[in-house]
Amino acid sequence: MKIRISQAAQELGVSVDTLRRWEAAGKIQAERTPGGHRRYDLAQLRGIVPRQAPSQRLTLAYARVSSHDQKSDLVTQVALLESFCSANGWTYEVLQDLGSGLNYQKRGLRQLIKRICAGEVGRLVLTHKDRLLRFGSELIFTLCAEFGVEVVIINRSEQPASFEEELVQDVLEIITVFSARLYGSRSHKNRQLIESLREAAQEL
Asked: In angstroms, rounded to a whole number, what is the distance separating the alpha carbons of residues 189 and 166?
């Protein structure tokens, strides 16, 4: 069966641009109509990249906190994600990470990326945008767009944080990571430093 590029993208759960890149790389072939439009063999595409339609895929919810001191917040995040997904009637799974938003090697994050690329995920649910990564979350969102994954952020702030507030949070995150490496994540000196930084941030 020959189908248009928009139909092929919808069937496979990828973007039209992705199909064009695959064709340019020689991964797939497309026939051209007399008018110059692409036509794809659907059976061939499914054989190369077998994927479910987006509506049939799993919803993945992702929760993360930066340190052991925030474990209670992780429990709260997971409960909120489970309640939200259940209320919407979605078949879901929750992935969790305990680690810095600057760490790209966390087990849950790596599993999330792998499953998105495998075409298993139809929807990604987060409590807040920065739960994914402190820097670079846009890269994951671009990946979601490429593979037809809907992104749902439960708590979208109606009033975005000011530049100063975002800067303070970013600096805190960076210093937290490096102080943990220097003194140890559970050392008394590290906890004192982080507490002092938090107090300074609150004053700002």
From this structure: 26
Residue 78 pLDDT: 94
Residue 8's domain is classified under what CATH number? 1.10.1660.10
Q: Do 90 and 128 belong to one domain? A: yes
Cβ(40)–Cβ(8) below 8 Å: yes
Confirm whether 158 is domain-assigned: no
Distance CA 154, CA 163 (A): 22
* Confidence class for position 72, pLDDT limits 50, 70, 90: confident
pTM above 0.85, yes or no: no
- Asked if 69 and 41 sit in the same domain, the reply is no
Task: Report the side by side order of strands in the sheet with 58-65.
Answer: 92-98, 58-65, 121-126, 150-153
- The angle subtended at Cα 140 by Cα 62 and Cα 66, nearest 5°, is 45
User: What does the alpha-carbon distance between residue 75 and residue 81 come to, in Å, rounded to a whole number?
Assistant: 10
Whether residue 179 is found in the same domain as residue 89:
no
Range of the domain at 189: 163-203
Amino acid in the structure at residue 47: G
Same domain, 131 and 171: no
What's the domain count of the chain? 3
pLDDT digits (tens, 9 = 90+) for 181-190: 555 555 666 5
Active site residues: 66
Average pLDDT over residues 97-126: 85
Q: Give the model confidence (pLDDT) of 155-178 as tens digits.
A: 865 444 454 555 556 566 655 555
